């Protein structure tokens, strides 16, 4: 709780009332939810961003793409325009959003679509790609116009939904009672080493229902990938200064990793899903130039790289040694086997009914 929280509580009460009424209307089917015969897996959260939806969607793609025809449906946050779009390599993030473009750039065999009205989007997707066997619905938990057959709820280990408040006092989009709709709850961004005692403590806090699986994941960081001409020939030593440039909701895991791995770290922050401008590039250049070191590079996230590589910005950043660092989700202990089997058994059951 911060100093402003008590002042915001009346607005939180009003917001909570509105979202509760909305959920009741869906629960009693006064507002209609669309169901599809194809398996639909939803990945979402109760809070506003920062729980790791994108890498968990990518994890699902990796475990499913060799066996099934996989498609994704996203809102396309931050894009210009609305309506249904089937992504292609000709699109940039202003047309489909940074996360869908990231999926497309990494998984060319997956159908990537966006639509602010997901029910309409899935219907069009299945019309255009009738061979689709699995739909992954990104940021789905509050989008109750579509009934996901398997609901996956994410919560950040350092900001569990039970310790949070509704907007605007906190970052929750709806009451924690909404967690009961989840089939699987994943505590994301845990430390790489996660003791069983801590696992038990979190379990006692979240109190999963009997039908719910409570699992724990962490982040594995990949190699530095050059994204500019200047970075291609750069040799990265361990002892160097890194300027981290990023516009994502929760940056702390990446900061901690870079601090553990390299000598010095400086951070230049932008808002989540920030659209970089020429002025921003000048700010980045000046900040980088002011670092007193001969051994220095710029590092950004995969999602930020998508936005920095907009055609209008490529000529402006080509002389900066910018690297992106990829991430993958890793489950603790037997949780990987449990999660994979829960997902695949749901898909097998659903496809048998078609």
Radius of gyration: 21 Å
Poorly predicted ranges: none
Helix content: 25-40%
Structural class assignment: alpha/beta
Strand percentage, roughly?
15-25%
- Here the CATH topology of the largest domain equals Rossmann fold
How would you write the strand order of the largest sheet? 3-4-2-5-1-6-7-8-12-11-9-10
Q: What is the CATH top level name of the largest domain?
A: Alpha Beta
User: For the report, how would you describe the main beta sheet?
Assistant: 12 strands, mixed
Q: What's the N-to-C terminus distance?
A: 49 Å
Helix count, DSSP H or I runs of 4 or more residues: 12
Number of domains: 2
Spell out the helices and strands N to C: HEHEEHHEHEEEHEHEHEHEHHEH
Number of strands: 12
> Outline, from the CA principal axes?
globular
Structure write-up:
- The chain is an alpha/beta fold.
- The protein has two domains: 5-68 and 133-220 and 331-352, Rossmann fold (3-Layer(aba) Sandwich), CATH 3.40.50; 229-320.
- 35% of the residues lie in helices and 22% in strands.
- The chain has twelve helices and twelve strands.
- It has helices at 5-27, 53-64, 93-96, 98-106, 118-128, 196-206, 229-232, 252-261, 278-289, 302-308, 314-317, 335-352; strands spanning 40-45, 70-74, 85-86, 111-114, 134-138, 150-156, 184-190, 213-226, 241-246, 264-269, 296-301, 322-331.
- Strands 3-4-2-5-1-6-7-8-12-11-9-10 form a twelve-stranded mixed beta sheet, with helices on both faces.
- Helix 6 (196-206) links the parallel strand 7 and strand 8.
- Helix 4 packs across helix 10 (302-308).
- The longest helix is centred in the N-terminal third of the chain and has 23 residues, at 5-27.
- The radius of gyration is 21 Å and the shape is globular.
- The model has no long low-confidence stretch (mean pLDDT 95).
């Amino acid at each position: 709780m911060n100093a402003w929280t008590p002042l915001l509580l009346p607005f939180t009460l009003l917001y909570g009332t509105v979202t509760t009424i909305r959920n009741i209307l869906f629960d009693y089917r006064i507002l209609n939810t669309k169901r599809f015969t194809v398996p639909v897996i939803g990945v979402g959260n109760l809070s506003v961003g920062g729980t790791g939806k994108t890498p968990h969607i990518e994890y699902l793609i990796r475990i499913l793409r060799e066996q099934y025809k996989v498609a994704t449906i996203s809102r396309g946050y931050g894009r210009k325009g609305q309506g249904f779009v089937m992504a292609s390599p000709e699109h940039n993030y202003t047309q489909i959003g940074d996360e869908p473009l990231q999926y497309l750039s990494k998984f060319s065999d997956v159908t990537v679509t966006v639509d602010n009205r997901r029910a309409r989007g899935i219907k069009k997707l299945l019309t255009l790609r009738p061979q689709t066997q699995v739909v992954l619905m990104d940021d789905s938990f509050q989008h109750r116009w579509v009934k996901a057959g398997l609901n996956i709820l994410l919560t950040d280990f350092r900001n569990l939904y039970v310790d949070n408040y509704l907007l605007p006092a906190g970052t929750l989009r709806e009451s924690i009672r909404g967690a009961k709709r989840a089939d699987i709850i994943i505590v994301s961004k845990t430390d790489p080493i996660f003791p069983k005692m801590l696992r038990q403590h979190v379990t006692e806090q979240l109190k999963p229902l009997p039908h719910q699986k409570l699992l724990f994941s962490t982040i594995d960081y990949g190699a530095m990938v050059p994204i500019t001409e200047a970075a291609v020939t750069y040799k990265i030593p361990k002892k160097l200064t890194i300027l981290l440039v990023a516009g994502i909701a929760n940056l702390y895991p990446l900061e901690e990793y870079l601090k553990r791995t390299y000598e010095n770290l400086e951070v230049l922050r932008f808002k989540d899903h920030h659209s970089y401008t020429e002025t921003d590039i000048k700010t980045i250049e000046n900040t980088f130039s002011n670092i007193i070191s001969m051994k220095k590079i710029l590092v950004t996230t995969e999602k930020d790289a998508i936005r920095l590589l907009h055609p209008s910005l490529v000529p402006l950043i080509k002389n900066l040694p910018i690297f992106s660092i990829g991430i993958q989700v890793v489950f603790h202990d037997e949780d990987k086997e449990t999660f994979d089997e829960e997902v695949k058994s749901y898909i097998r059951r659903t496809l048998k009914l078609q």
